[in-house]
């Protein structure tokens, strides 16, 4: 299957599946394969944070900084397999909170933030990397993805499940409810899905009009005795200077998928795995000019909404038989859907044995031309192929 080449212009990228244009304020206008457009992607919002390692807390009179004082756009690569732009935005962030911690200090620190924007041939999303040297304390920085219209909730992938949430959180026991939530491999709100390379924090803000991902919380204590959003301390007020991340380079990597059908329509489960796992390249050790090994057929898994959480070679000892002979390849499949999924596995095998989580066989069967399985909602199935 051929793909259109990735191309770059002075302020735009395209690969036939997704298009990106850099707006005058340095944010991105991203158009998806179905015509969905997300405007203003990558708006950075920096605010004060007088909280601790448990909870964010705003100063009494916060000062938000979202507009850069300088913007530069450079073309780094122009296809055909990959095209990249670098957007550099310079911000003036307050150096810290004031002594009483109710406002941000007047002293500002000029901070360049580099945003690497990339499209690759055949990928229906835009890759985004951010990087900056943090020289400010007591602040929270967020990456905003504005939405075409307000949403009433979000969905985020965690451990073997996708959790749907509303715009509010539960509170109680003297603690103000903060609707910031974790996401492991992706988070979605309406037509915007963001693929993640590590677990992060997000919140749907502005009355459902934007998705905000936390890039940095720079704080100074494990707990603070006086917390605006909590009646009692969470722990002892022990300073943790390293939590301010001063002098540290803060880097993040994610991808943005515009799709009107949401995370399921975008097949975010599969895209998240593709994004996280780049092609593995290994240098050969054989002599130069020697014959190449025979082509080999590996495993292939087809199934919408199916996550392959693990694949490994196992022997009989792993399943308690004690023979020590090779048993096959163990694969763990997860249906990331509340309606179930159908999955088809093909490869070099003629027998498939469903096993329990300890590897003990449940139901072996002989197969030809692959194995097709019907997985129930959120079902985890482990199969050994021989």
UniProtKB/TrEMBL annotation:
The lineage of its organism: Bacteria, Bacillati, Actinomycetota, Actinomycetes, Kitasatosporales. This is Glycosyl hydrolase family 38 C-terminal domain-containing protein. It comes from the Bacteria. It comes from Streptomyces spinosisporus. Gene3D superfamilies: Golgi alpha-mannosidase II, domain 4 (2.70.98.30).
């Amino acid at each position: 299957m051929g793909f259109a080449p990735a191309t770059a212009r002075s302020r735009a990228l395209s690969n036939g599946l997704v298009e990106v244009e850099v707006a005058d304020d340095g944010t991105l206008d991203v158009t998806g394969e179905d015509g969905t457009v997300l405007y203003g992607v990558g708006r950075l919002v920096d605010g004060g944070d007088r909280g601790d390692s448990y909870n964010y807390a705003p100063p009494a009179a916060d000062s938000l900084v979202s507009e850069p004082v300088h913007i530069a756009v450079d073309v780094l690569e122009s296809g055909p397999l990959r095209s990249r732009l670098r957007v550099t935005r310079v911000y003036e962030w307050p150096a810290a909170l004031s002594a009483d911690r109710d406002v941000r200090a007047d002293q500002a620190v000029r901070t360049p933030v580099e945003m690497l924007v990339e499209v690759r041939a055949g990928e229906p999303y835009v890759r985004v990397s951010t990087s900056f040297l943090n020289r400010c304390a007591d602040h929270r920085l967020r990456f905003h993805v504005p939405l075409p219209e307000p949403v009433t909730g979000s969905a985020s992938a965690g451990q073997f499940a996708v959790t749907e949430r509303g715009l509010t959180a539960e509170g109680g026991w003297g603690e103000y409810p903060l609707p910031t939530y974790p996401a492991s491999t992706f988070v979605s709100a309406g037509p915007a899905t963001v693929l993640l390379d590590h677990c992060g924090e997000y919140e749907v803000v502005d009355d459902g009009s934007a998705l905000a991902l936390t890039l940095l919380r720079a704080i100074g204590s494990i707990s603070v005795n006086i917390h605006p959003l909590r009646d009692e301390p969470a722990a002892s007020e022990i300073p943790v200077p390293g939590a301010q991340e001063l002098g540290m380079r803060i880097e993040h990597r994610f991808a943005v998928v515009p799709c009107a059908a949401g995370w399921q329509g975008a097949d975010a489960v599969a895209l998240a795995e593709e994004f996280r796992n780049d092609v593995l390249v290994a240098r050969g050790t054989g002599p130069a000019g020697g014959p190449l090994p025979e082509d080999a057929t590996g495993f292939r898994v087809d199934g919408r909404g199916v996550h392959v959480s693990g694949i490994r070679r196992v022997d009989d000892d792993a399943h308690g038989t004690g023979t020590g002979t090779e048993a096959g390849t163990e694969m763990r499949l997860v249906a990331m859907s509340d309606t179930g999924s159908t999955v088809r596995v093909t490869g070099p095998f003629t027998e498939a044995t469903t096993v329990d989580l300890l590897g003990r066989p449940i139901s072996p069967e002989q197969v030809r031309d692959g194995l097709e399985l019907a997985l129930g909602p959120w079902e985890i199935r482990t199969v050994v192929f021989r």
